Amino acid sequence: MIVKQATLQPGPGPVLITGGSGFIGCNIADALAARGQQVRIADNLSRSGAEEHAHWLKRRHGKRIEIETVDVRDTEAIKRAVRDASAVLHLAGQVAVTTSLDRPAEDFEINARGTLNVLEAVRTTNSAAPVLFASTNKVYGRLLDQKSLKRQGARYVPTREELNWGIPENAPLDFHSPYGCSKGAADQYVTDYARVFGLRTAVLRMSCIYGPRQFGTEDQGWIAHFLLRVLHGKSIIIYGDGLQVRDALHVSDAVAAWITVLDHIDEVSGRVFNLGGGTENTVSLLELIELITELRGTRPEITFAPWRPGDQPWYVSHIRALSDALGWQPRVSLREGLRTLDAWLERRFGAATVTQPERVHA
């Protein structure tokens, strides 16, 4: 399948990336700047690694990268950042289910209110700018319980044949956590601003993006986190039974999807797309442990803890809509992608010390 040629010609202004110093945001910024695009990053630089990513981008691209310390909750600062942008890629957000359970009001203010601030800034100051939004598979909620699944080897598989290709975009939304609620509300606002106000928007519901420049913590980035634990000779705590399944997508494929949607926004405005590895790139937590053991030659110590609210025992993205619309498809296999991430983590972290086993959920 061939990816369509670009139809969008960026305007003279920069592409604004909120959260552009995050893992996915900095990889998108790098790719855009590499093709000659001016990029403005609006980020509050609060997450681990954000300042490092900002410096990395500046070293690589110099004046093509602007860094502004901006919080999406600051309406006036967001308006200033949006006013002359040729496009807005909105990736800033609170990213963890665990944090949303601890601080649900803050989660709402960042994810739901912050997204509305971005949309209003575009609507009132720069309505021609396309808006792409980073949503999540968590908007679908828990989806399936153990009664709808069966064990097959070291993973769960659904008992319903219609799910063989994954969860499609028309699956009912059922948020099931404060994080799911805040991201789901934002997801729907972005879609509705295309319908009601005529903005050129698209939503990308992402699932388990991994790859270089991912720091991997107990709250987010579980594949990188597993690799780091093995790299440091530390144990892993798994919530649930380890049979839970995700589809994993290498960040280079995710970046290609974002840029392809941006380039063709007039063809897909108002649409929602799943963005994940699809059925060809699925893995359970226990299977990932085996792949990492094979890759690194070391098996970590594992302990188990109870399931947590919002945990999905099985989620696989149905990705045909994006493939059919624009010709995009994943190209990096899970084994190849793990090697690239492992090599980057080895270079970046080496044998640094981690003092306690950290909790992981997917």
Description:
The chain has a single domain (15-360), classed as NAD(P)-binding Rossmann-like Domain (Rossmann fold), CATH 3.40.50. It has helices at 23-34, 50-61, 75-82, 97-102, 104-125, 178-197, 222-231, 251-263, 265-268, 285-296, 320-326, 334-349; strands at 15-18, 39-43, 65-69, 87-90, 131-136, 149-152, 155-158, 201-206, 209-210, 236-239, 245-247, 249-250, 271-275, 282-284, 302-305, 359-360. It has twelve helices and 16 strands. Strands 3-2-1-4-5-8-13 form a seven-stranded parallel β-sheet, with helices on both faces. The protein is an alpha/beta fold and 362 residues long. The chain is 39% helix and 17% strand.
Distance N terminus to C terminus?
A: 31 Å
**Element string (H = helix, E = strand):** EHEHEHEHHEEEHEEHEEEHHEEHEHHE
Structural class determined from secondary elements: alpha/beta
Poorly predicted tracts of residues: 352-362
Biggest β-sheet description: 7 strands, parallel
Q: Please, what is the CATH homologous superfamily?
A: NAD(P)-binding Rossmann-like Domain
Average of the residue pLDDT scores: 91
- CATH-defined topology: Rossmann fold
Q: Count the helices. How many?
A: 12
Strand order of the largest sheet: 3-2-1-4-5-8-13
Helix content: 25-40%
Instruction: Classify the beta-strand content into a percent band.
Output: 15-25%
Q: How many E-type strands?
A: 16
CATH class: Alpha Beta
Q: Give the oligomeric state of the chains in this entry, treating copies of one chain as homo and distinct chains as hetero.
A: single chain
- At CATH's second level, what is the architecture? 3-Layer(aba) Sandwich
Radius of gyration: 19 Å
Number of domains: 1
Coarse morphology = globular
